[in-house]
Design brief:
- By secondary structure, the chain is of the alpha/beta class.
- The chain has one domain (about 40-473): 3-Layer(aba) Sandwich (Rossmann fold), CATH 3.40.50.1820.
- Helices cover about 35% and strands about 15% of the residues.
- The chain has 17 helices and twelve strands.
- A hairpin with a 2-residue loop joins strand 11 and strand 12 (about 430-435).
- Mean pLDDT is about 90; it is low at about 1-30 and about 295-315.
């Protein structure tokens, strides 16, 4: 048994002994008791043991309305006490970090094709960090509210505020992680969530006069950042990739460039409908991989539905991962193992909530001003992009970064994995940009090994290895 497994087992045995002792009492609010209640012992369909501890449960972020966010936390495989803490967020708005971040991207457990069990992900990010996944906002995944109106009143501002409250209370439940190096990561509409939460943390630390949450930096992938630049880059990418006609490309720029991603005009919707027909039945999230024929989107406007649901959808690429997760996370025995309360949680678990997505309130037209605010603070900020994604493509991110007008520290160069070009990178003053060759919207799904290399480099603060660095080593 590895060191971390022995440590977790020892703590569990000691706690069990103390709790069973007639002379020992423990405060109901004790973090040790709360952690013990949230500990996940095993998962249905798990035919193997793991050396790391993991926990799941709820943190109430608003007592008055009863808003509670669901989390799943995985300690690092080895020596978690020495590893940083990393929060992962998926987007949508309305998509589950459990469905995507855990079950098909960077989590240790991925779902079998029959939807009845799990297998180990060899490229899980808890190989090098303690990983915390959050279903946010309420109405997403297993997260819930006792006030039904909350489900139709989500927006950027409340999501950031609730997420900050979640972190404060989560650190109270897991005090051993207070002061630990902390990073934010995410993709897609988390291009809003992550910098907005980073801004909230930095301002909270300034108000409190102490580094209450030791935020070191954040990293976002294929991230919605600025409505104009993102739309402009999407249409250019689709046209240059031969997905749409010249006429449609021109019309998209006329009617959609200045539109909101979340609140689109009817004129823009009509042109997106035309573009959707020209694309055919491909997956815009990964234009060169097969679509899941078992889950063809029935919406008249497939492209518009997918652009609005930014965050859905390799070596052994399975295009139907969402279908497997939907089966697994609706199993009563799985929900029991994860401490889901069936009396309050959504009656049907979904990868993405249409209710949350279609009723989204405030959505910032741009978060570039947050980058301008946070870059001088010295945070480590990275942006990455899978280069076969047509939903938030590499062109969009490059336009966003160019608008920041940052001085270049290290010019554009290829980076390598196992002697092969794995992507390209450029280091700016205050920001690092990395592309991943052949990856779609969900980079860790399509290129899991290269995504782990990227994550290790981000945590170390070292740029991606160019050919000269490989030769020197």
């Amino acid at each position: 048994m590895e060191k971390s497994g022995f440590r977790s087992l020892s703590i569990s045995l000691i706690l069990a002994y103390l709790l069973s002792s007639p002379t020992f009492t423990i405060d109901a609010a004790s973090p040790f008791e709360l952690q013990a209640k949230d500990r996940v012992r095993t998962l249905p369909g798990q035919a193997f043991n793991v050396s790391f501890a993991h926990y799941s449960g709820y943190v109430t972020v608003n007592e008055e309305s009863g808003r509670a966010l669901f989390y799943w936390f995985f300690e690092a495989v080895e020596d978690p006490a020495s590893k940083p803490l990393v929060l992962w967020l998926n987007g949508g708005p309305g998509c589950s970090s459990i469905a995507f971040g855990v079950a098909e991207e960077v989590g240790p457990f991925h779902i079998n094709a029959d939807g009845k069990g799990v297998y180990l992900n060899p490229y899980s990010w808890n190989q090098v960090a303690n990983m915390l996944f959050l279903d946010s906002p309420i109405g997403v995944g297993y997260s819930y509210s006792n006030t039904s109106e909350d489900l139709s009143s989500n927006g950027d501002k409340r999501t950031a505020s609730d997420s900050l409250v979640f972190l404060q209370k989560w650190f109270d439940r897991f005090p051993q992680y207070k002061g630990r190096e902390f990073y934010l990561t995410g993709e897609s509409y988390a291009g809003h969530y992550v910098p907005q939460l980073a801004q909230a943390i930095v301002r909270y630390n300034m108000r409190s006069g102490e580094n209450s949450i030791n935020l070191i930096g954040y990293m976002v992938g294929n991230a919605l950042t600025d409505d104009f630049h993102d739309h402009y880059g999407i249409f250019e990418f689709m046209w240059a990739s031969g997905l749409i006609s010249d006429q449609t490309y021109k019309l998209l720029n006329v009617f959609c460039d200045f539109q909101s991603f979340v609140h689109t005009s009817s004129e823009c919707e009509k042109i997106l409908d035309i573009a959707s027909g020209e694309l055919g039945n491909i997956d815009p999230y990964s234009i060169f991989t097969p679509s899941c024929t078992a889950a063809v989107v029935s919406s008249k406007n497939r492209l518009l539905k997918r652009l609005r649901s930014v965050g859905r959808i390799g070596e052994n690429y399975d295009p139907c991962t969402e279908k497997h997760s939907t089966v697994y996370f609706n199993l009563p025995e799985v929900q029991k193992a994860l401490h889901v309360n069936p009396k309050v949680a959504p009656t049907k678990w979904e990868t993405c909530s249409d209710t949350v997505n279609e009723n989204w309130k405030d959505s910032a037209t741009s978060v570039l001003h947050i980058y301008r605010e946070l870059i001088p603070s010295g945070l480590r900020i990275w942006m990455f992009s899978g280069d076969t994604d047509a939903v938030i493509p590499v062109t969009s991110t490059r336009y966003n970064i160019d608008s920041l007008k940052l001085p270049t520290i290290a010019p554009w160069h290829a980076w390598y994995d196992d002697g092969q070009v794995a992507g390209w990178s450029q280091v700016y003053e205050g920001l690092t940009f990395v592309t991943i060759r052949g990856a779609g919207h969900e980079v860790p799904l399509h290129r899991p090994k290269q995504a782990l290399v990227l994550f290790k480099s981000f945590l170390s603060g070292h740029p991606m290895a160019g050919l000269s660095q490989l030769d020197d080593s």
